[in-house]
Specification:
The protein has about 425 residues and is an alpha/beta fold. The protein has two domains: about 1-250, Ribonuclease Z/Hydroxyacylglutathione hydrolase-like (Metallo-beta-lactamase, Chain A, 4-Layer Sandwich), CATH 3.60.15.10; about 265-430, P-loop containing nucleotide triphosphate hydrolases (Rossmann fold). It has 13 helices and 20 strands. The chain has helices spanning about 20-30, 55-60, 85-90, 105-110, 170-175, 200-210, 230-240, 285-290, 310-325, 335-340, 355-360, 365-375, 395-415; strands at about 1-5, 40, 45, 70, 95-100, 120-125, 130, 135-140, 150-155, 155-160, 180-185, 215-220, 250, 270-280, 300, 330-335, 350, 380-385, 420-425, 425-430. The strands form three sheets. Strands 6-5-4-3-2-1-13 form a seven-stranded mixed sheet. It has a seven-stranded mixed sheet with strand order 16-15-17-18-14-19-20, with helices on both faces. A six-stranded mixed sheet has the order 7-8-9-10-11-12. Strand 2 (about 40) and strand 3 (about 45) form a beta hairpin. The longest helix is centred in the C-terminal third of the chain and has 19 residues, at about 395-415. It binds zinc ion (2 copies). One zinc ion binds near residues 76, 78, 79, 162 and 222.
Length: about 425
């Protein structure tokens, strides 16, 4: 099964032709033009057909003459543009065409089907299963208006646009699917769509259920200008095990071989030590949390003691951090990092090193053991530390000793890290 992405953009595409924001300006300047999301499977099945999809196929050198099944997700005009049915009849196509979709979308089409056109309609609702062109189609619920649906094809492909966070029955239906390809929407706004927070959370939920594995290709579609621009979007998606591809990309849904190496969800990443540095309030913790947001089974390691009742500022910050973290994450409060590094229960987020150091200042054996544990860990571990050397010269001798010890420990950990990042003003730059 080969899938051609006729478009990967939101309803208004990216750039929005009328918009003057920096994101749309970047898209125009770099020629990164995304049209309305639609896809073609082989040459006979089409997923969505907004006004731009037929011309997008023509620009790719593809004829739609062979399309026999058109699956519509919902009636919104970027997915259902029925005048295409009239253009088809003008081409004298006498082969049958089956329109599959929720009743509201099919009603939009009715006025565009001539009495002798060889078009049949198949209304569907979430929960249905049907055969189309020898393929097994399952219809899944979306969180989107007008009884919008998602489609699963041959238990290999999940086409998931447009939708907010996936309904519980949809997640349950995908359990154990080990999809080869997932097209997941990332419009960039939160209401009945997915954004930078809810997109990775859906991936984590699909991974938790074995619907997405290491062998699954995850491609973000329905992309709009509220997302970060190209390189930053690519960087975030890569951290989530996903990607954005240009319109016209052909994806091989390799269904004939079993997945390369199905693994347990907790063992799905190779060992990876990621050190994230930044100044106070630089966004380093947000970056660390985002980095693991698509992981199914994260343990958050707070290296400090629980706040005392009189430390209001600290308590507020801890509460804010907690509220930001996905509810499924486990929280452990400990300064004993060695046991966790030696036998990680899943991906770890350790926040933060200075707190650990304040409990182990002038304890060289502890620092040595930590560096060794970091070097030898077998898991995916993200460690947050502070970049303090460029700040104000500490007034006290203890402050200077702490600063020097932290700088030295950062250096030793960076030497044996797989990735080192510096966050400034919320922008992450890879140092090594
Ligand atoms: Zn849409
Ligand atoms: Zn814009």
């Amino acid at each position: 099964m080969r899938l051609t992405l006729l478009g990967t953009g939101a309803a208004d595409g990216w750039p929005n032709p009328f918009c003057s924001c920096s994101s749309c300006g970047w898209a125009r300047a770099t020629g990164t033009i995304r049209g309305q999301t639609a896809a073609l499977i082989d040459r006979d099945m089409m997923l969505d057909c907004g006004p731009e999809a037929p011309r997008a196929a023509a620009r790719l050198g593809i004829s739609l003459a062979g399309v026999r099944h058109l699956l519509l997700t919902h009636r919104h005009p970027d997915h259902t543009a029925p005048p295409a049915l009239l253009w088809r009849s003008w081409a004298q196509r006498r082969e049958p065409l089956e329109l599959i979709g929720p009743p509201a979308a099919l009603r939009e089409c009715a006025a565009w089907i001539g009495p002798t056109d060889p078009v049949t309609i198949t209304p569907v609702a979430a929960g249905d299963a049907l055969q189309a062109g020898g393929r097994q189609v399952r219809v899944l619920a979306a969180d989107h208006p007008d009884a919008a649906v998602l489609y699963e094809i041959d238990r290999r492909l999940l086409y998931a646009t447009d939708t907010g966070p996936l309904p519980a029955e949809t997640l349950a239906a995908t359990a154990g699917a080990e999809y080869r390809l997932v097209l997941l929407e990332l419009t960039g706004c939160a209401r009945q769509h997915l954004d930078q927070e809810t997109f990775p959370a859906q991936l984590a939920a699909l991974r938790r259920r074995g619907a997405v594995t290491d062998a699954t290709r995850v491609v973000a579609v329905h992309l709009g200008h509220r997302n970060p621009i190209g390189p930053e979007l690519d960087r975030r998606l890569a951290g989530w095990g996903a990607e954005a591809v240009p319109d016209g990309t052909v994806l091989d849904v390799a269904g004939d071989q079993p997945p390369r190496q199905p693994r347990s969800p907790t063992a799905r990443r190779p060992p990876r030590r990621v050190l994230i540095l930044g100044g106070a309030r630089s966004g380093k913790s947000v970056e660390a949390e985002r980095r693991l947001a698509a992981e199914p089974d994260v343990t958050y390691v707070a290296t400090g003691p629980a706040p005392g009742p009189d430390d209001v500022d600290w308590a507020t910050r801890v509460t804010q951090h907690r509220a930001r973290r996905p509810p499924a994450w486990r929280t452990v409060e400990t300064t004993d990092l060695l046991a966790l590094l030696a036998d990680p229960p899943g991906p770890l987020l350790i926040d933060c090193l200075p707190l650990w150091l304040s409990a182990h200042l002038d304890d060289e054996p502890a620092a040595h053991a930590l560096v060794a544990g970091w070097r030898d860990t077998s898991g995916l571990v993200v460690l947050v530390s502070s970049e303090v050397g460029s700040g104000v010269h500490p007034a006290s001798a203890l402050g200077r000793r702490f600063r020097d010890a932290l700088g030295a420990l950062n250096t030793r950990l960076a030497e044996v890290s797989d990735e080192v990042w510096l966050v400034t003003a919320g922008i992450a730059r890879r140092l090594a």
